[in-house]
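Final paragraph of the annual report: two paired records, presented back to back.
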Amino acid sequence: MHELSVAANIVEIATEEAASRGGAHVLALHLKLGQLSGLAKEALIFSWEAICEDTPLKGVRLVIEEAPVVVYCPACQAEKTLRSVQEFVCPVCGVPTPEVLRGRELEIVALEIE
């Protein structure tokens, strides 16, 4: 499960950041997850909880913001948000839109600490 190794890396990053802030207590970790990231949200949450079990991050909330796929439409000459990741066509004019601008994100957006 790819999500397990990703969760382990996120725990490592969050633990290091908390330590660099004098051992601050982490309350929540905010993550942006693109629809094309290759990760399943539910599997990532499960992996996060399992990995955190024996760490200082046990019980820390994982808040996931799902990021839609945004493409560039050559016909409209504008950014468009796909209706479905199954159809890479402009939702306005129907032209194929192979240029992905956003939607592959896997970013730690914020740590809530005290």
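The closing record of the year follows.
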Amino acid sequence: MTDVLQFVANDIRLEGVEVDVRLDPSWLDGQLRDAGARAAPGAEEGARVVGRLSRSDDDIVVRCRVSAVIEADCVRCLEPARYVVKSELSLLLRPVVRPPVGARGAAHRHRGAAPAEEEYEFGADEAEVDTYDGEKVVLDGFVREAILLEMPNFPLCSEACAGIQAAPEPHERLETPAPVDPRLAPLGQFRKQLGGPTTLDELVAAAAERSAAMGRPVMRSNAHRVGKKK
């Protein structure tokens, strides 16, 4: 990806230069994709880096404000979680110091196949100091880190997000009662008259009465036969 926050070191004078760069959504998408984030739709104008670069001998002092509106997938429901990022970027960049050409050659022969650009190692006193290559200052990576530092480890679309809603179990679904066979209406009426559940003989008798009226046979209860055996 092309760096959009790149400045020629020799153009940065002691009095400094102003920085005002709009961050395109495609730049944000490319820089943040591996972290699971992206530019929020419709927030292009709010993504900017504004500030100043100045020089102190060969060191470059960076003081900028970073703003953007980004989104990531909610860890509960996977819907977009939107975040407004506002961060300060304060850096002291020192030029990378490389050994003279002759020294690099000797070190290369001594170390074998190690490439020259890998020979320089930062000392313990330089561990907290950022660098530039001495010719150009590139801030893209620093801006990316400033944005990601404002992102939560577990994005949420809202604190009250209930997560993905599972489909109800079959026994939890509200089912429409099946229509009642009109031939059973006398049974229901008979049950209401008695004020509660009826015996099998009573229900069969009511069914027999209804069937006789309709000219159809009905199976009789086994209760009569059981009583006779006794």
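The beta strands are 6-8, 17-22, 37-39, 48-56, 59-73, 80-95, 130-132, 136-138. This concludes the annual technical report; the extension proposal builds directly on these records.
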